[in-house]
């Protein structure tokens, strides 16, 4: 695995219920990709091929808009190592699981 991203999607909608509904649709899409991911309280981490992850990041915006957000802000963190491996989600978080 050459890359990992963390993505936070913030749909510009009026109600908390709408935020949750739209973010849930985005997370359902991430699940459907078959990539390794972990949902957190503020962001979702995903790992895999760099190009595939960049497509997922793009699609997350499109899905949020299609789900009803007139606009969306996203915060993305990326780790990329084209000639090697990056630390995986499990390696980073296993010792902190409860």
From TrEMBL:
Which intervals of the chain form a coiled coil? Answer: none
**In what residue span(s) does the Thiamine-binding protein domain sit?**
5-96
Organism's domain of life? Bacteria
Check the record and name the Pfam families matching this protein. Thiamine_BP
Q: Which InterPro entries match?
A: MTH1187/YkoF-like, Thiamine_BP, UPF0045_domain
Q: Which PANTHER family match?
A: UPF0045 PROTEIN ECM15 (PTHR33777)
The record's comment on protein family reads: Belongs to the UPF0045 family.
Protein name listed in UniProt:
MTH1187 family thiamine-binding protein
Q: Which organism does this record belong to?
A: Enterococcus lemanii
């Amino acid at each position: 695995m050459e890359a990992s991203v963390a993505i936070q999607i913030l749909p510009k909608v009026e109600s908390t219920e709408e935020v949750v509904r739209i973010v849930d649709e985005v997370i359902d899409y991430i699940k459907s990709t078959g990539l390794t991911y972990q949902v957190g309280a503020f962001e979702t981490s995903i790992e895999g091929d760099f190009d595939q992850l960049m497509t997922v990041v793009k699609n997350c915006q499109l899905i949020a808009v299609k789900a009803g957000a007139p606009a969306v802000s996203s915060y993305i963190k990326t780790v990329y190592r084209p000639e090697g491996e990056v630390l995986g989600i499990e390696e980073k978080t296993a010792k902190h699981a409860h």
